[in-house]
Amino acid sequence: MTMTNTRLVAAALVSLAIGAAVAAQSPQLGYSDTPLLPGTKWHVHDGMRPQPTIVMPGAPGEPVPAPADAVVLFDGRDLSRWQTADGKLPGWRVMNGAMVVQPMSGDVVSKDTFGDVQLHIEFATPEKVEGNGQNRGNSGVFLMERYEVQVLDSFKNQTYPDGQAGAVYGQFPPLVNASRGPGQWQTYDIVFIAPRFANGKLVSPGRATVFHNDVLVQHDVTLIGQTVHREIGTYEPHADRLPIKLQDHGNPTKFRNIWARRLQ
Ligand code: MG
């Protein structure tokens, strides 16, 4: 057996062992009294839904430089392109080149607005592991302030699959779990196609593709509506362009190197 093969087999055995240790499904992980998701046998936040397979991503690299046509929303220096939802100075802190959630200070939204977009964002859940399930490293990247790609510490931390890292919250679990450990920098690369409305009615729904640490976790999924807790979200007509929102869910998760390209 070559060196490479030996390493591959060893890696496969490790991932099998991890998978066996954490693959249990449990109603306690989620809910069974919520509505059924359309076209599936699963309830919203169903704890019995199969846990996504764990895929170890490649080693973390340097921050990915912004391309020339990107809007740089955070380059490690200041929060000048961010505000609270009601237009005030954000309460989050900038530390060591990262913007850090200050629990209870509220969500932050970009001053720039976007419709169809390619978004690159890096995050790290707290190194000091506290809480379980939805209470460990929870934040979120909300496209157009209402469509959430979940941010969570999903490394050895089970929750309902449609609420783990890389999920379109409450709608689509990630295809696999490509999470790195707490405190490690991770990346999301998101392509979001905005919903279209005309005369107060939905013309075409939103769609999302997401790479987590360069691993595909959402492939052109069609959003059911806004992402909400315990319910099936619907679409409410809104503007063509809206801010990107980052969530304060009470955990000091941090972000860096955020840039976005308007598409078309
Ligand atoms: Mg969240």
What does this protein structure show overall?
With 264 residues, the chain is mainly β. It has one domain (30-262): Jelly Rolls, CATH 2.60.120. It has one helix at residues 3-22, and strands at residues 53-54, 71-74, 82-83, 93-95, 98-100, 108-114, 117-124, 139-143, 147-151, 176-177, 186-193, 196-198, 201-204, 207-212, 215-222, 242-246, 254-262. Strands 2, 4, 5, 7, 11, 14, 15 and 17 form an 8-stranded antiparallel sheet that branches. Strands 3-6-16-8-9 form a 5-stranded antiparallel sheet, with no helix packed on it. The model is unreliable at 8-23 (pLDDT under 50). The site of magnesium ion has 8 residues, from strand 8 and strand 9.
Q: What is the CATH topology?
A: Jelly Rolls
Considering the protein shown, what is the CATH homologous superfamily? Exo-inulinase, domain 1
| Proportion of residues in helical segments | under 10%
Query: Approximately what portion of the residues adopt beta-strand conformation?
Result: 25-35%
The CATH architecture assignment turns out to be: Sandwich
User: Which oligomerization state do the chains in this entry correspond to?
Assistant: single chain
Heteromolecules bound? magnesium ion
